[in-house]
Amino acid sequence: MSTIRLTMSQAVIRYMQAQKVNVAGQIKPLFPGVWAIFGHGNVAGLGEALYQARETLPTYRAHNEQAMCHAAIAFTKTLNRRQVMACTASAGPGSVNMVTAAAVAHVNRLPLLLLPGDTFATRKPDPVLQQVENFHDHTLTSNDCFKPVSRFFDRITRPEQLLTSLPQAMRVLTDPVECGPVTLALPQDIQTEAYDYPEHFFVEKVHHLRRQAADPRELDDAIALIRSAERPLLVAGGGVHYAEALSELDAFVSRYQVPVTETQAGKGALPWDHASNVGTLGVTGSAAANSLAQEADLIIAVGTRLGDFASGSRALINPEAKILCLNVASFDAVKHYAQPLVGDARLSLVSLKDGLEQGTAPWRPASSWSERAAALRDDWNATVERVTQDRGTGLPCDAEVVGAVNRAAGERDIVVCAAGGLPGELQKLWRTRFDRGYHMEYGYSCMGYELAGGLGTKMALPDSEVFVMVGDGSYLMMNSEIATSVMLGHKIIAVVLDNRGYGCIHRLQQFCGGPGFNNRLEDCLSVEAGAPKTDFAAHAAALGANSEKVANIAELEQALERAKASDISYVIAIDTDGLNDTKEGGAWWDVAVPEVSPRQEVVDARERYQSHKARQARNL
Prior knowledge:
By secondary structure, the protein is an alpha/beta fold. It has three domains: about 5-205, Thiamin diphosphate (ThDP)-binding fold, Pyr/PP domains (Rossmann fold, 3-Layer(aba) Sandwich), CATH 3.40.50; about 215-380, TPP-binding domain (Rossmann fold), CATH 3.40.50; about 390-575, Rossmann fold, CATH 3.40.50.970. The strands form five sheets. It has a six-stranded parallel sheet, sandwiched between helices. β8 (about 150-155), α6 (about 160-175) and β9 form a beta-alpha-beta unit.
Protein backbone atom coordinates (compact mmCIF):
# COMPACT_ATOMS: atom_id res chain seq x y z
CA MET A 1 0.00 0.00 0.00
CA SER A 2 1.44 3.36 -1.05
CA THR A 3 1.54 6.01 1.63
CA ILE A 4 2.24 9.71 1.88
CA ARG A 5 3.63 11.40 4.98
CA LEU A 6 1.62 14.42 6.03
CA THR A 7 0.88 16.33 9.16
CA MET A 8 -2.60 15.87 10.53
CA SER A 9 -3.49 19.38 9.32
CA GLN A 10 -2.14 18.73 5.85
CA ALA A 11 -4.16 15.52 5.69
CA VAL A 12 -7.37 17.32 6.70
CA ILE A 13 -6.90 19.89 3.94
CA ARG A 14 -5.91 17.34 1.30
CA TYR A 15 -8.95 15.22 2.15
CA MET A 16 -11.20 18.27 1.88
CA GLN A 17 -9.74 19.06 -1.53
CA ALA A 18 -10.54 15.54 -2.72
CA GLN A 19 -14.25 15.95 -1.94
CA LYS A 20 -16.39 16.94 -4.92
CA VAL A 21 -20.12 17.31 -5.45
CA ASN A 22 -22.40 16.87 -8.43
CA VAL A 23 -24.46 20.04 -8.86
CA ALA A 24 -26.90 19.81 -11.76
CA GLY A 25 -24.47 17.63 -13.69
CA GLN A 26 -21.43 19.77 -12.94
CA ILE A 27 -18.65 18.46 -10.69
CA LYS A 28 -17.66 21.16 -8.21
CA PRO A 29 -15.56 21.29 -5.03
CA LEU A 30 -17.59 20.33 -1.97
CA PHE A 31 -15.46 22.88 -0.09
CA PRO A 32 -14.94 26.02 -2.21
CA GLY A 33 -13.23 27.88 0.63
CA VAL A 34 -12.22 28.13 4.28
CA TRP A 35 -12.81 31.01 6.66
CA ALA A 36 -9.99 31.47 9.15
CA ILE A 37 -8.94 33.70 12.00
CA PHE A 38 -5.58 32.47 13.17
CA GLY A 39 -4.19 32.33 16.68
CA HIS A 40 -1.65 30.25 18.52
CA GLY A 41 -4.05 27.28 18.46
CA ASN A 42 -4.20 26.91 14.67
CA VAL A 43 -1.71 29.19 12.91
CA ALA A 44 1.25 26.81 12.82
CA GLY A 45 -0.75 23.68 12.04
CA LEU A 46 -3.83 24.41 9.93
CA GLY A 47 -2.41 27.78 8.91
CA GLU A 48 0.62 26.16 7.27
CA ALA A 49 -1.54 23.55 5.54
CA LEU A 50 -3.96 26.15 4.21
CA TYR A 51 -1.09 28.24 2.88
CA GLN A 52 0.16 25.29 0.84
CA ALA A 53 -3.34 24.77 -0.60
CA ARG A 54 -4.22 28.43 -1.16
CA GLU A 55 -4.28 28.22 -4.98
CA THR A 56 -7.09 25.64 -5.06
CA LEU A 57 -8.70 26.09 -1.64
CA PRO A 58 -8.97 29.83 -0.89
CA THR A 59 -8.68 31.03 2.70
CA TYR A 60 -10.82 34.02 3.64
CA ARG A 61 -9.89 36.20 6.58
CA ALA A 62 -12.75 37.66 8.63
CA HIS A 63 -13.01 40.09 11.54
CA ASN A 64 -15.16 38.03 13.89
CA GLU A 65 -15.29 34.27 14.36
CA GLN A 66 -19.05 34.06 14.79
CA ALA A 67 -19.60 36.31 11.80
CA MET A 68 -17.39 34.28 9.47
CA CYS A 69 -19.45 31.20 10.37
CA HIS A 70 -22.64 33.13 9.58
CA ALA A 71 -21.18 33.95 6.17
CA ALA A 72 -20.39 30.26 5.64
CA ILE A 73 -23.93 29.28 6.71
CA ALA A 74 -25.53 31.82 4.39
CA PHE A 75 -23.36 30.58 1.53
CA THR A 76 -24.53 27.00 1.84
CA LYS A 77 -28.17 27.99 2.48
CA THR A 78 -28.18 30.05 -0.71
CA LEU A 79 -26.84 27.06 -2.64
CA ASN A 80 -29.40 24.67 -1.13
CA ARG A 81 -26.72 22.86 0.90
CA ARG A 82 -24.84 21.71 -2.21
CA GLN A 83 -21.49 23.22 -1.18
CA VAL A 84 -19.99 23.70 2.27
CA MET A 85 -17.48 26.06 3.82
CA ALA A 86 -15.17 25.29 6.70
CA CYS A 87 -14.25 27.67 9.53
CA THR A 88 -11.24 27.53 11.81
CA ALA A 89 -10.31 29.60 14.86
CA SER A 90 -7.75 29.42 17.60
CA ALA A 91 -8.05 27.53 20.87
CA GLY A 92 -9.97 29.42 23.54
CA PRO A 93 -12.21 32.43 22.88
CA GLY A 94 -11.73 32.32 19.13
CA SER A 95 -13.24 28.88 18.89
CA VAL A 96 -15.94 29.43 21.51
CA ASN A 97 -17.04 32.47 19.50
CA MET A 98 -18.17 29.99 16.82
CA VAL A 99 -20.55 28.10 19.15
CA THR A 100 -23.51 30.43 18.52
CA ALA A 101 -23.10 30.01 14.78
CA ALA A 102 -22.93 26.24 15.23
CA ALA A 103 -26.34 26.47 16.87
CA VAL A 104 -27.63 28.49 13.90
CA ALA A 105 -26.48 25.77 11.52
CA HIS A 106 -27.84 23.00 13.75
CA VAL A 107 -31.34 24.46 14.08
CA ASN A 108 -31.54 25.26 10.38
CA ARG A 109 -30.21 21.83 9.29
CA LEU A 110 -27.34 23.47 7.39
CA PRO A 111 -23.88 21.94 6.81
CA LEU A 112 -20.87 23.68 8.34
CA LEU A 113 -17.42 22.24 9.04
CA LEU A 114 -15.86 23.68 12.19
CA LEU A 115 -12.17 23.13 12.86
CA PRO A 116 -11.47 24.74 16.25
CA GLY A 117 -7.98 24.61 17.67
CA ASP A 118 -7.76 22.78 20.97
CA THR A 119 -5.38 22.46 23.92
CA PHE A 120 -2.34 20.16 23.84
CA ALA A 121 -3.22 16.47 23.70
CA THR A 122 0.01 15.65 25.53
CA ARG A 123 -0.87 18.13 28.30
CA LYS A 124 2.84 18.78 28.81
CA PRO A 125 2.64 22.60 28.84
CA ASP A 126 -0.70 22.73 30.73
CA PRO A 127 -2.24 25.10 31.52
CA VAL A 128 -1.60 26.88 28.25
CA LEU A 129 -2.75 30.35 27.30
CA GLN A 130 -6.56 30.51 26.97
CA GLN A 131 -7.06 26.99 28.33
CA VAL A 132 -10.19 26.42 30.39
CA GLU A 133 -9.30 23.91 33.10
CA ASN A 134 -12.04 21.67 34.42
CA PHE A 135 -11.48 20.71 38.04
CA HIS A 136 -13.20 17.32 37.92
CA ASP A 137 -12.69 16.15 34.31
CA HIS A 138 -9.36 16.73 32.59
CA THR A 139 -10.75 15.51 29.26
CA LEU A 140 -13.00 18.54 28.95
CA THR A 141 -11.94 21.67 27.09
CA SER A 142 -13.92 24.73 26.07
CA ASN A 143 -14.54 23.01 22.73
CA ASP A 144 -16.88 20.60 24.47
CA CYS A 145 -19.36 23.49 24.25
CA PHE A 146 -19.79 22.45 20.61
CA LYS A 147 -21.23 19.05 21.47
CA PRO A 148 -24.88 20.10 22.01
CA VAL A 149 -24.87 22.15 18.80
CA SER A 150 -23.06 19.71 16.49
CA ARG A 151 -24.58 16.86 14.52
CA PHE A 152 -21.18 15.15 14.68
CA PHE A 153 -18.32 15.88 17.08
CA ASP A 154 -14.85 14.41 17.38
CA ARG A 155 -11.58 15.36 19.01
CA ILE A 156 -8.61 14.19 16.96
CA THR A 157 -5.97 13.16 19.51
CA ARG A 158 -3.94 11.02 17.07
CA PRO A 159 -3.25 11.81 13.39
CA GLU A 160 -4.45 8.40 12.25
CA GLN A 161 -7.90 9.00 13.75
CA LEU A 162 -8.69 11.03 10.63
CA LEU A 163 -8.98 7.77 8.68
CA THR A 164 -12.26 6.95 10.40
CA SER A 165 -13.41 10.41 11.48
CA LEU A 166 -13.31 12.34 8.21
CA PRO A 167 -15.58 9.93 6.26
CA GLN A 168 -18.14 10.23 9.05
CA ALA A 169 -17.86 14.00 8.92
CA MET A 170 -18.52 13.99 5.16
CA ARG A 171 -21.50 11.66 5.67
CA VAL A 172 -23.18 14.14 8.00
CA LEU A 173 -22.40 17.19 5.86
CA THR A 174 -23.91 15.65 2.74
CA ASP A 175 -26.79 13.59 4.17
CA PRO A 176 -30.29 15.12 3.72
CA VAL A 177 -31.42 13.73 7.09
CA GLU A 178 -28.33 14.15 9.27
CA CYS A 179 -27.23 17.42 7.69
CA GLY A 180 -25.86 19.97 10.12
CA PRO A 181 -22.66 21.28 11.69
CA VAL A 182 -19.65 19.00 12.13
CA THR A 183 -17.01 19.90 14.70
CA LEU A 184 -13.54 18.37 14.65
CA ALA A 185 -11.58 19.71 17.60
CA LEU A 186 -7.90 19.75 16.67
CA PRO A 187 -5.31 19.88 19.49
CA GLN A 188 -2.57 22.24 18.40
CA ASP A 189 0.24 19.73 18.95
CA ILE A 190 -1.51 16.95 17.02
CA GLN A 191 -2.16 19.36 14.14
CA THR A 192 1.59 19.36 13.51
CA GLU A 193 2.30 15.64 14.01
CA ALA A 194 2.95 13.55 10.89
CA TYR A 195 1.64 10.13 9.87
CA ASP A 196 2.01 7.86 6.85
CA TYR A 197 -1.46 8.09 5.35
CA PRO A 198 -2.55 5.65 2.61
CA GLU A 199 -2.70 7.45 -0.72
CA HIS A 200 -6.10 5.97 -1.53
CA PHE A 201 -7.52 8.01 1.36
CA PHE A 202 -7.13 11.11 -0.81
CA VAL A 203 -8.69 9.76 -4.02
CA GLU A 204 -11.35 12.09 -5.41
CA LYS A 205 -14.84 11.40 -4.05
CA VAL A 206 -17.93 12.78 -5.82
CA HIS A 207 -20.97 13.23 -3.57
CA HIS A 208 -24.53 13.10 -4.91
CA LEU A 209 -27.78 14.15 -3.28
CA ARG A 210 -29.34 11.02 -1.82
CA ARG A 211 -33.05 10.73 -2.60
CA GLN A 212 -35.12 8.43 -0.42
CA ALA A 213 -38.36 7.11 -1.89
CA ALA A 214 -41.38 6.92 0.38
CA ASP A 215 -42.40 3.64 1.98
CA PRO A 216 -45.20 2.07 -0.14
CA ARG A 217 -47.52 1.60 2.83
CA GLU A 218 -47.03 5.17 4.07
CA LEU A 219 -47.57 6.40 0.52
CA ASP A 220 -50.85 4.49 0.18
CA ASP A 221 -52.03 5.86 3.53
CA ALA A 222 -51.12 9.40 2.47
CA ILE A 223 -53.02 9.09 -0.81
CA ALA A 224 -56.06 7.81 1.04
CA LEU A 225 -55.87 10.69 3.50
CA ILE A 226 -55.67 13.26 0.71
CA ARG A 227 -58.57 11.66 -1.14
CA SER A 228 -60.73 12.08 1.95
CA ALA A 229 -60.04 15.83 2.15
CA GLU A 230 -62.22 18.59 0.76
CA ARG A 231 -60.36 21.59 2.19
CA PRO A 232 -56.60 20.87 1.94
CA LEU A 233 -53.88 23.43 2.60
CA LEU A 234 -50.28 22.67 1.66
CA VAL A 235 -47.49 24.18 3.76
CA ALA A 236 -44.19 24.52 1.87
CA GLY A 237 -41.08 24.53 4.08
CA GLY A 238 -37.36 24.83 3.53
CA GLY A 239 -37.14 21.16 2.63
CA VAL A 240 -38.87 21.93 -0.68
CA HIS A 241 -35.86 24.06 -1.61
CA TYR A 242 -33.23 21.62 -0.35
CA ALA A 243 -34.86 18.74 -2.25
CA GLU A 244 -35.02 20.91 -5.38
CA ALA A 245 -38.70 20.04 -5.61
CA LEU A 246 -39.98 23.37 -6.90
CA SER A 247 -41.26 22.08 -10.24
CA GLU A 248 -42.83 19.05 -8.62
CA LEU A 249 -44.58 21.24 -6.05
CA ASP A 250 -45.90 23.52 -8.80
CA ALA A 251 -47.15 20.54 -10.82
CA PHE A 252 -48.90 19.01 -7.82
CA VAL A 253 -50.73 22.09 -6.56
CA SER A 254 -51.57 23.36 -10.05
CA ARG A 255 -53.07 20.01 -11.03
CA TYR A 256 -55.34 19.87 -7.98
CA GLN A 257 -55.78 23.60 -7.25
CA VAL A 258 -54.48 23.20 -3.72
CA PRO A 259 -53.78 26.51 -1.93
CA VAL A 260 -50.18 26.81 -0.77
CA THR A 261 -48.76 28.72 2.15
CA GLU A 262 -45.06 29.05 2.95
CA THR A 263 -42.94 29.14 6.08
CA GLN A 264 -40.05 31.54 6.58
CA ALA A 265 -37.66 28.91 5.18
CA GLY A 266 -40.08 27.88 2.45
CA LYS A 267 -40.83 31.34 1.08
CA GLY A 268 -40.04 31.47 -2.62
CA ALA A 269 -41.04 27.86 -3.23
CA LEU A 270 -43.71 29.33 -5.51
CA PRO A 271 -43.60 32.77 -7.14
CA TRP A 272 -45.54 35.27 -5.05
CA ASP A 273 -48.10 35.74 -7.84
CA HIS A 274 -48.67 32.03 -8.46
CA ALA A 275 -52.38 31.20 -8.55
CA SER A 276 -52.02 28.81 -5.59
CA ASN A 277 -49.83 31.02 -3.38
CA VAL A 278 -51.89 32.48 -0.50
CA GLY A 279 -48.92 33.98 1.34
CA THR A 280 -47.04 32.88 4.41
CA LEU A 281 -48.33 31.09 7.48
CA GLY A 282 -48.40 31.75 11.20
CA VAL A 283 -47.56 34.40 13.75
CA THR A 284 -46.29 36.75 11.05
CA GLY A 285 -48.27 35.19 8.23
CA SER A 286 -50.84 36.49 5.78
CA ALA A 287 -54.49 36.91 6.66
CA ALA A 288 -55.34 34.62 3.74
CA ALA A 289 -53.15 31.72 4.79
CA ASN A 290 -54.10 31.98 8.45
CA SER A 291 -57.81 32.03 7.67
CA LEU A 292 -57.45 28.93 5.52
CA ALA A 293 -55.40 27.18 8.21
CA GLN A 294 -58.29 27.63 10.65
CA GLU A 295 -60.77 26.16 8.17
CA ALA A 296 -58.77 23.40 6.46
CA ASP A 297 -59.62 19.75 7.03
CA LEU A 298 -56.14 18.59 5.93
CA ILE A 299 -52.72 20.19 6.30
CA ILE A 300 -50.11 18.77 3.92
CA ALA A 301 -46.80 19.87 5.46
CA VAL A 302 -43.91 19.44 3.03
CA GLY A 303 -40.35 19.85 4.30
CA THR A 304 -41.25 21.76 7.47
CA ARG A 305 -41.08 21.16 11.21
CA LEU A 306 -44.15 23.36 11.71
CA GLY A 307 -42.35 25.34 14.39
CA ASP A 308 -44.27 27.61 16.72
CA PHE A 309 -44.17 30.62 14.41
CA ALA A 310 -45.72 28.59 11.58
CA SER A 311 -48.29 26.82 13.75
CA GLY A 312 -49.22 29.86 15.86
CA SER A 313 -47.84 27.98 18.86
CA ARG A 314 -50.19 25.11 17.95
CA ALA A 315 -53.25 27.32 18.36
CA LEU A 316 -53.75 28.45 14.74
CA ILE A 317 -54.53 25.31 12.77
CA ASN A 318 -58.05 23.89 12.83
CA PRO A 319 -58.00 21.33 15.67
CA GLU A 320 -60.23 19.03 13.62
CA ALA A 321 -57.81 19.03 10.69
CA LYS A 322 -55.65 16.03 9.98
CA ILE A 323 -51.96 16.64 9.29
CA LEU A 324 -49.88 14.79 6.71
CA CYS A 325 -46.18 15.49 7.12
CA LEU A 326 -43.92 14.76 4.15
CA ASN A 327 -40.35 15.03 5.37
CA VAL A 328 -37.06 13.33 4.64
CA ALA A 329 -36.41 13.12 8.40
CA SER A 330 -38.67 10.86 10.45
CA PHE A 331 -37.78 12.99 13.48
CA ASP A 332 -39.73 15.87 11.92
CA ALA A 333 -42.40 13.81 10.15
CA VAL A 334 -44.10 12.67 13.37
CA LYS A 335 -44.43 16.11 14.98
CA HIS A 336 -47.91 17.50 15.70
CA TYR A 337 -49.23 13.91 15.83
CA ALA A 338 -49.04 13.95 12.06
CA GLN A 339 -49.44 11.01 9.74
CA PRO A 340 -45.85 10.64 8.51
CA LEU A 341 -44.71 10.25 4.93
CA VAL A 342 -40.95 9.89 5.17
CA GLY A 343 -39.14 10.52 1.93
CA ASP A 344 -37.55 12.97 -0.47
CA ALA A 345 -39.95 15.77 -1.36
CA ARG A 346 -39.30 15.66 -5.09
CA LEU A 347 -39.83 11.92 -5.44
CA SER A 348 -42.74 11.81 -3.01
CA LEU A 349 -44.72 14.66 -4.58
CA VAL A 350 -44.52 12.86 -7.93
CA SER A 351 -45.63 9.61 -6.27
CA LEU A 352 -48.55 11.36 -4.57
CA LYS A 353 -49.64 12.90 -7.86
CA ASP A 354 -49.38 9.57 -9.68
CA GLY A 355 -51.38 7.85 -6.96
CA LEU A 356 -54.12 10.45 -6.98
CA GLU A 357 -54.52 10.01 -10.74
CA GLN A 358 -55.42 6.35 -10.28
CA GLY A 359 -59.04 5.24 -10.21
CA THR A 360 -62.18 6.29 -12.01
CA ALA A 361 -62.58 9.63 -10.24
CA PRO A 362 -59.43 11.73 -9.90
CA TRP A 363 -59.37 13.65 -6.64
CA ARG A 364 -60.22 17.33 -6.43
CA PRO A 365 -60.76 19.67 -3.47
CA ALA A 366 -64.22 21.19 -3.09
CA SER A 367 -64.73 23.90 -5.69
CA SER A 368 -65.97 26.27 -2.97
CA TRP A 369 -62.61 25.83 -1.18
CA SER A 370 -60.61 26.79 -4.25
CA GLU A 371 -62.84 29.79 -4.82
CA ARG A 372 -62.48 30.93 -1.21
CA ALA A 373 -58.69 30.58 -1.37
CA ALA A 374 -58.58 32.68 -4.55
CA ALA A 375 -60.71 35.42 -3.00
CA LEU A 376 -58.66 35.56 0.20
CA ARG A 377 -55.47 35.64 -1.86
CA ASP A 378 -56.69 38.60 -3.91
CA ASP A 379 -57.69 40.46 -0.73
CA TRP A 380 -54.28 39.84 0.85
CA ASN A 381 -52.36 40.96 -2.23
CA ALA A 382 -54.36 44.20 -2.19
CA THR A 383 -53.45 44.63 1.49
CA VAL A 384 -49.74 44.16 0.76
CA GLU A 385 -49.93 46.70 -2.04
CA ARG A 386 -51.58 49.21 0.29
CA VAL A 387 -49.40 48.89 3.41
CA THR A 388 -46.09 49.00 1.52
CA GLN A 389 -46.77 52.33 -0.16
CA ASP A 390 -45.12 55.54 0.99
CA ARG A 391 -47.55 57.36 3.26
CA GLY A 392 -45.46 60.50 3.06
CA THR A 393 -45.99 61.60 6.67
CA GLY A 394 -44.01 61.19 9.87
CA LEU A 395 -41.28 58.65 10.42
CA PRO A 396 -41.63 55.75 7.97
CA CYS A 397 -42.66 52.37 9.33
CA ASP A 398 -40.92 49.10 8.51
CA ALA A 399 -43.57 48.19 5.93
CA GLU A 400 -42.89 51.34 3.91
CA VAL A 401 -39.15 50.61 3.92
CA VAL A 402 -39.77 46.99 2.89
CA GLY A 403 -41.92 48.21 0.02
CA ALA A 404 -39.26 50.62 -1.22
CA VAL A 405 -36.51 48.01 -1.12
CA ASN A 406 -38.73 45.40 -2.75
CA ARG A 407 -39.54 47.77 -5.61
CA ALA A 408 -35.83 48.45 -6.10
CA ALA A 409 -34.93 44.75 -6.21
CA GLY A 410 -34.66 42.99 -9.55
CA GLU A 411 -36.17 39.63 -10.46
CA ARG A 412 -33.13 37.66 -9.29
CA ASP A 413 -32.08 39.82 -6.37
CA ILE A 414 -32.08 38.64 -2.77
CA VAL A 415 -33.15 40.08 0.57
CA VAL A 416 -31.34 38.90 3.73
CA CYS A 417 -32.55 39.28 7.31
CA ALA A 418 -32.62 37.39 10.60
CA ALA A 419 -34.01 38.97 13.78
CA GLY A 420 -36.19 41.64 15.34
CA GLY A 421 -39.39 42.99 13.84
CA LEU A 422 -38.20 42.90 10.25
CA PRO A 423 -38.62 39.12 9.75
CA GLY A 424 -42.34 39.51 10.44
CA GLU A 425 -42.75 42.41 8.05
CA LEU A 426 -40.70 40.67 5.37
CA GLN A 427 -42.51 37.36 5.72
CA LYS A 428 -45.85 39.10 5.25
CA LEU A 429 -44.87 41.66 2.67
CA TRP A 430 -41.79 40.74 0.60
CA ARG A 431 -42.60 39.59 -2.91
CA THR A 432 -40.27 37.39 -4.94
CA ARG A 433 -40.54 35.21 -8.01
CA PHE A 434 -36.94 33.98 -7.57
CA ASP A 435 -36.77 30.85 -5.44
CA ARG A 436 -33.57 32.12 -3.77
CA GLY A 437 -34.84 35.69 -3.50
CA TYR A 438 -35.79 35.49 0.18
CA HIS A 439 -33.06 34.57 2.67
CA MET A 440 -34.25 34.56 6.27
CA GLU A 441 -32.39 32.98 9.18
CA TYR A 442 -35.38 32.37 11.40
CA GLY A 443 -34.70 28.93 12.77
CA TYR A 444 -32.46 30.45 15.45
CA SER A 445 -33.27 34.10 14.65
CA CYS A 446 -29.75 35.13 15.50
CA MET A 447 -29.13 38.86 15.88
CA GLY A 448 -25.92 39.76 14.10
CA TYR A 449 -26.43 37.25 11.29
CA GLU A 450 -27.65 39.82 8.80
CA LEU A 451 -24.56 41.58 7.46
CA ALA A 452 -22.30 38.52 7.58
CA GLY A 453 -25.11 36.47 6.05
CA GLY A 454 -25.41 39.00 3.28
CA LEU A 455 -21.73 38.58 2.52
CA GLY A 456 -22.03 34.79 2.33
CA THR A 457 -25.12 35.08 0.14
CA LYS A 458 -23.30 37.38 -2.26
CA MET A 459 -20.37 34.97 -2.44
CA ALA A 460 -22.78 32.20 -3.41
CA LEU A 461 -24.66 34.20 -6.07
CA PRO A 462 -22.41 37.09 -7.14
CA ASP A 463 -24.65 38.11 -10.06
CA SER A 464 -27.55 38.97 -7.74
CA GLU A 465 -27.85 42.18 -5.79
CA VAL A 466 -28.05 41.32 -2.11
CA PHE A 467 -30.16 43.65 0.04
CA VAL A 468 -29.51 43.26 3.76
CA MET A 469 -32.27 44.69 5.93
CA VAL A 470 -31.10 45.15 9.50
CA GLY A 471 -32.23 47.01 12.59
CA ASP A 472 -29.97 49.28 14.59
CA GLY A 473 -29.76 46.70 17.38
CA SER A 474 -28.44 43.91 15.16
CA TYR A 475 -26.14 46.30 13.33
CA LEU A 476 -24.49 47.40 16.57
CA MET A 477 -24.22 43.79 17.69
CA MET A 478 -22.20 42.64 14.66
CA ASN A 479 -21.12 44.81 11.76
CA SER A 480 -17.46 44.04 11.16
CA GLU A 481 -17.99 42.03 8.00
CA ILE A 482 -18.92 45.19 6.13
CA ALA A 483 -15.16 45.74 6.05
CA THR A 484 -14.66 42.14 4.93
CA SER A 485 -17.14 42.58 2.07
CA VAL A 486 -15.18 45.60 0.86
CA MET A 487 -11.87 43.79 1.28
CA LEU A 488 -13.06 40.77 -0.72
CA GLY A 489 -14.96 42.78 -3.33
CA HIS A 490 -18.33 41.19 -2.58
CA LYS A 491 -20.77 44.08 -2.62
CA ILE A 492 -23.85 44.10 -0.43
CA ILE A 493 -26.49 46.81 -0.02
CA ALA A 494 -27.47 47.26 3.63
CA VAL A 495 -30.50 49.26 4.75
CA VAL A 496 -30.26 50.09 8.46
CA LEU A 497 -33.61 50.85 10.10
CA ASP A 498 -32.91 52.91 13.21
CA ASN A 499 -35.76 52.83 15.72
CA ARG A 500 -33.44 53.62 18.64
CA GLY A 501 -33.34 50.26 20.35
CA TYR A 502 -34.94 46.84 20.29
CA GLY A 503 -38.30 47.98 18.97
CA CYS A 504 -39.71 44.50 18.33
CA ILE A 505 -39.14 43.30 21.89
CA HIS A 506 -40.39 46.63 23.23
CA ARG A 507 -43.71 45.99 21.46
CA LEU A 508 -43.84 42.45 22.82
CA GLN A 509 -43.04 43.76 26.30
CA GLN A 510 -45.99 46.13 26.10
CA PHE A 511 -48.29 43.43 24.72
CA CYS A 512 -47.45 41.32 27.78
CA GLY A 513 -48.41 44.22 30.06
CA GLY A 514 -44.94 45.46 30.87
CA PRO A 515 -43.77 49.08 30.82
CA GLY A 516 -41.06 50.25 28.46
CA PHE A 517 -37.94 48.88 30.14
CA ASN A 518 -34.39 48.25 28.89
CA ASN A 519 -35.33 47.84 25.21
CA ARG A 520 -35.65 51.25 23.63
CA LEU A 521 -32.59 53.34 24.39
CA GLU A 522 -34.76 55.97 26.05
CA ASP A 523 -35.91 53.33 28.55
CA CYS A 524 -32.40 52.17 29.52
CA LEU A 525 -30.04 53.30 32.23
CA SER A 526 -27.87 56.05 30.81
CA VAL A 527 -26.19 59.32 31.61
CA GLU A 528 -28.44 62.38 31.92
CA ALA A 529 -27.91 63.28 28.27
CA GLY A 530 -29.20 59.86 27.21
CA ALA A 531 -27.75 57.27 24.85
CA PRO A 532 -25.77 58.65 21.91
CA LYS A 533 -27.38 58.85 18.50
CA THR A 534 -25.34 56.50 16.32
CA ASP A 535 -24.32 57.81 12.91
CA PHE A 536 -24.58 54.55 11.01
CA ALA A 537 -23.60 56.11 7.68
CA ALA A 538 -20.41 57.54 9.16
CA HIS A 539 -19.64 54.23 10.84
CA ALA A 540 -20.10 52.26 7.63
CA ALA A 541 -17.90 54.75 5.77
CA ALA A 542 -15.21 54.20 8.39
CA LEU A 543 -15.37 50.48 7.52
CA GLY A 544 -14.74 51.28 3.85
CA ALA A 545 -18.28 51.23 2.43
CA ASN A 546 -20.12 53.91 0.55
CA SER A 547 -22.94 55.23 2.70
CA GLU A 548 -25.55 57.88 3.29
CA LYS A 549 -28.45 58.72 5.58
CA VAL A 550 -31.89 59.46 4.19
CA ALA A 551 -34.86 61.19 5.78
CA ASN A 552 -37.85 59.58 4.07
CA ILE A 553 -39.01 56.93 1.62
CA ALA A 554 -38.60 59.16 -1.43
CA GLU A 555 -34.96 59.76 -0.52
CA LEU A 556 -34.53 56.05 0.21
CA GLU A 557 -35.73 55.11 -3.26
CA GLN A 558 -33.20 57.48 -4.81
CA ALA A 559 -30.43 56.19 -2.56
CA LEU A 560 -31.19 52.59 -3.51
CA GLU A 561 -30.54 53.46 -7.16
CA ARG A 562 -27.16 54.93 -6.19
CA ALA A 563 -26.44 51.84 -4.14
CA LYS A 564 -27.16 49.55 -7.08
CA ALA A 565 -24.77 51.59 -9.23
CA SER A 566 -22.00 51.41 -6.63
CA ASP A 567 -19.02 49.10 -7.12
CA ILE A 568 -18.58 48.50 -3.41
CA SER A 569 -20.82 47.77 -0.44
CA TYR A 570 -23.33 50.52 0.26
CA VAL A 571 -25.05 51.28 3.56
CA ILE A 572 -28.21 53.40 3.81
CA ALA A 573 -29.47 54.53 7.22
CA ILE A 574 -33.01 55.67 7.85
CA ASP A 575 -34.84 56.57 11.06
CA THR A 576 -38.07 54.58 11.49
CA ASP A 577 -41.08 54.38 13.79
CA GLY A 578 -40.41 51.44 16.09
CA LEU A 579 -43.99 51.30 17.39
CA ASN A 580 -45.76 51.01 14.04
CA ASP A 581 -45.84 47.43 12.74
CA THR A 582 -48.21 45.80 10.25
CA LYS A 583 -51.37 44.80 12.08
CA GLU A 584 -52.93 42.99 9.13
CA GLY A 585 -52.44 39.23 9.18
CA GLY A 586 -50.58 37.49 11.96
CA ALA A 587 -51.58 35.11 14.73
CA TRP A 588 -51.06 34.54 18.45
CA TRP A 589 -47.63 33.55 19.73
CA ASP A 590 -47.11 31.78 23.05
CA VAL A 591 -45.00 34.10 25.21
CA ALA A 592 -45.72 33.37 28.85
CA VAL A 593 -47.20 36.22 30.92
CA PRO A 594 -46.70 36.40 34.72
CA GLU A 595 -49.50 34.80 36.70
CA VAL A 596 -49.19 37.41 39.49
CA SER A 597 -48.19 41.06 39.13
CA PRO A 598 -48.94 44.40 40.82
CA ARG A 599 -49.47 45.90 37.34
CA GLN A 600 -53.07 45.78 36.13
CA GLU A 601 -51.76 45.74 32.55
CA VAL A 602 -49.99 42.44 33.27
CA VAL A 603 -53.11 41.00 34.91
CA ASP A 604 -55.14 41.92 31.84
CA ALA A 605 -52.49 40.44 29.55
CA ARG A 606 -52.55 37.23 31.59
CA GLU A 607 -56.31 36.91 31.00
CA ARG A 608 -55.80 37.29 27.26
CA TYR A 609 -52.99 34.78 27.43
CA GLN A 610 -55.17 32.19 29.15
CA SER A 611 -57.87 32.51 26.50
CA HIS A 612 -55.33 31.75 23.79
CA LYS A 613 -53.93 28.86 25.80
CA ALA A 614 -57.38 27.32 25.80
CA ARG A 615 -57.35 27.29 22.00
CA GLN A 616 -53.86 25.85 22.05
CA ALA A 617 -54.94 22.98 24.29
CA ARG A 618 -57.29 21.69 21.61
CA ASN A 619 -54.30 20.95 19.38
CA LEU A 620 -52.25 19.12 22.01
